[in-house]
């Protein structure tokens, strides 16, 4: 969005928002990197809040394919795999098409679009 890259996650319980987190990435970051950061943020959020189970829904098929590829040794992918295996939380990573009415996915997209222009990168 205007050269800015970021991501958002939304935690839902019975389709009601419980919490959301926004992350601004450097302007050089790719959409792939933003999707990785969103998944990493969701894993850390669920783990730190002691969720027994979390469903992470993303519209980035390429990120899910990379995470599920046992030969992918890209450091951010390794980090996500490590977080998944070391967490007591059970995770399901699920792909959805963008903009098809998946509540959490639409909310995260909306947060990112509204807030990203106001945020600065770290």
From TrEMBL:
InterPro entries to which the protein is assigned, alphabetical: RNaseH-like_sf, RNaseH_domain, RNaseH_sf
Record domain RNase H type-1: where: 1-117
Pfam family, one: RNase_H
GO MF annotations in UniProt: nucleic acid binding; RNA-DNA hybrid ribonuclease activity
Protein name: RNase H type-1 domain-containing protein
């Amino acid at each position: 969005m205007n050269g800015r890259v970021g991501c958002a996650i939304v935690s839902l319980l019975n389709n009601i928002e419980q919490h959301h987190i926004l992350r601004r990435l450097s302007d050089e970051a790719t959409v792939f990197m933003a999707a990785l950061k969103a998944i990493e943020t969701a894993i850390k959020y669920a783990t730190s809040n002691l969720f027994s189970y979390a469903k992470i829904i993303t519209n980035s098929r390429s990120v899910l394919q990379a995470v599920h590829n046992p030969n992918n040794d890209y450091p951010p992918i390794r980090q996500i795999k490590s977080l998944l295996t070391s967490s007591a939380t059970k995770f399901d990573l699920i792909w959805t098409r963008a903009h098809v009415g998946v509540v959490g996915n639409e909310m995260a997209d909306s947060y990112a679009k509204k807030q990203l222009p106001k945020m600065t990168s770290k």
